[in-house]
Amino acid sequence: xxxQGKYDENSDxxxxxxxxxxxxxxxxxxxxxxxxxxxxxxxxxxxxNPKTKTAFNFKHDDLSVETVRANDKASxxxxxxxxxxxxxxxxxxxxxxxxxxxxxxxxxxxxNSPDMSGALLAVNVTAEQKQKWADKKWGEPALNIxxxxxxxxxxxxxxxxxxxxxxxxVSGLEFVVAKDDGKDKYWAGYNVDSKQAKTxxxxxxxxxxxxxxxxxxxxxxxxxxxxxxxQPLTVTAGGxxxxxxxxxxxxxxxxxxxxxxxxxxxxxxxxxxxxxMTQSFNHNNVEGGNPxxxxxxxxxxL
Length: 302
Hints:
0% of the residues lie in helices and 64% in strands. It has no helices and 19 strands. It has a 19-stranded mixed β-barrel. A hairpin with a 4-residue loop joins strand 10 (157-165) and strand 11 (170-181). The model has no long low-confidence stretch (mean pLDDT 92).
């Protein structure tokens, strides 16, 4: 909601790598039977060739399976509950193949604790091993482990840490604390690698049907480049307005060195069809000659 898809969520460097803008996005979704779902998407990015993706999910007893076929990769993922006692532990494993580039094996465990005097603990650990297409053996690069842990106290207070370890060094380390106040939320955090401190809040006004989110990010690195108002600071505001039971308006305004605004309108035509339009104007790209982008989405839900 806050960034409206501007940044690549899969990037190791938060708020540094932007996601490709989707000019056309066509999607089909269906749930043909209980425990089954299928989806297909066709995306034309502003630059580059179209991308396609088909995913099929099904569940057999406690075993969940997801298969993905895309124009640039194929993967299969299985998940199974390892423990259903007081401490709940779920596990999953996946294999991904990018033809001509790499192969990847991933294993993960997800741990949730019982109530411990008002405190709840959640831990996720994911191990990833890659093999370059030209290599005959696994191990290049080395095993990478992503981890995150969060403690919730009395349902309202939260503290968390996340990072990665390549068996030699820790990277991407970030700490966050947050406080819930009904539907509202307040948080603050610090990313050790990027030396970036952040604080923000979410405000919900159910009476008028809107939600606003605000965040300020400050680079504490010595000699960091000036952004907003001559400081190494970036301020972002985002939100959603529920205009009717069928129409919503989403927005983002980010002030860094120069402003960037995104607006997205989503409308449900009926129970099956949904359309959307996204406008982006980034003043940082004015000198490059392409500051304005316009995208269209169309989704059919069976």
